[in-house]
Design goal:
The protein has helices at residues 3-21, 61-100, 105-117, 125-129, 132-139, 147-158, 164-169, 203-216, 221-232, 239-242, 254-266, and strands at 176-177, 183-184, 196-198. By secondary structure, the chain is mainly alpha-helical.
Length: 278
């Protein structure tokens, strides 16, 4: 067996593994855009902000907000840095394939790992041996979420870090799970519904899960398309712009979008956006 035949054989095996083990898309689940998978509830990443939660007893509103932002920003930076590291790898693979028309087994292995994480299957074995389009589609998912949007949503969903779910479950984004015991049961859950509010090992894990949710859930396809269009226009990726794709995050729809945008403007949150652009 020559080297090319060996590569084709191993590519086939990687493709079969990806098909068998890749989790189904969120759109195939009986859930809303707030669902997280059980595998995303813990994270090896740690942020120094996780060491002490912002105190709920702050009376001064300006001080409470300041402490809230200072607490979450390190975790947001860490999460976006990891996403951008994955994005840089994809851009490298894209260029390598363009230049040489063939990826190594190590390249394909890394591509499969990122594809599985971001829930994008290979359409065929042929796409895996010629993954240019697959990488381009993956790049629409593997990208940063502006700090302004993360801060606004976390403040809104967690009542500035004082909600029961923020304090007990490290969940600042109101994300749901559907396996019994996976989280905290809402006190006013509608009869007949079975969801729980997801519980995370750390606030950092919750932030990472939220970003992955926006980057993979079919409910936020519009958000990702807005971001892609901004990339193509070489424009800044802002929370105000991406918030337009959050209509399905809440039953309140457009009213929720406008509230998040109002919070971004009032608190001047765009100033917190990192200049981590790739």
């Amino acid at each position: 067996m020559n080297q090319r035949q060996l590569v084709v054989t191993l590519v086939t095996l990687i493709f079969l593994v990806a098909v068998v083990y890749l989790s189904p898309d969120d759109g195939d689940q009986p859930t809303s855009g707030r669902q997280v998978s059980n595998t995303s509830m813990s994270s090896p990443i740690s942020g120094k902000g996780d060491q002490a939660k912002p105190a709920a007893e702050y009376v001064d509103v300006k001080l409470k907000k300041k402490r809230f932002f200072e607490y979450l920003l390190p975790m947001i930076t860490i999460t976006n840095a990891q996403v951008l590291q994955e994005r840089r790898k994809l851009l490298t693979l894209h260029k390598r394939h363009t230049d040489s028309a063939e990826l190594s087994l190590s390249d394909l292995s890394q591509l499969t790992v990122i594809s599985n994480k971001y829930k994008l299957t290979f359409d065929s074995q042929e796409e895996m041996t010629n993954p240019q389009t697959h990488i381009e589609n993956l790049l629409t998912k593997v990208d940063l979420i502006p700090a302004s949007l993360i801060l606004a949503q976390s403040a809104n969903e967690s009542a500035w870090g004082t909600s029961r779910f923020a304090m007990e479950a490290n969940n600042y984004f109101g994300m749901w799970c559907f396996t019994p015991g996976c989280g905290v049961k809402p006190a006013r859950r509608t009869p007949g519904l079975t969801h729980e509010v997801a519980k995370f090992d750390s606030v950092q894990a919750g932030v990472s899960s939220y970003v992955l949710n926006l980057n993979t859930n079919t409910a936020y396809t519009e958000l990702r398309q807005i971001r892609t269009n901004l990339r193509l226009a070489n424009a800044e990726i802002t929370g105000l712009a991406l918030a337009e794709g959050l209509e399905r995050y809440s039953e309140r729809g457009q009213a929720y979008v406008e509230e998040i945008q109002s919070m971004i403007r009032f608190n001047k949150l765009e100033a917190f956006n990192q200049t981590l652009i790739d």
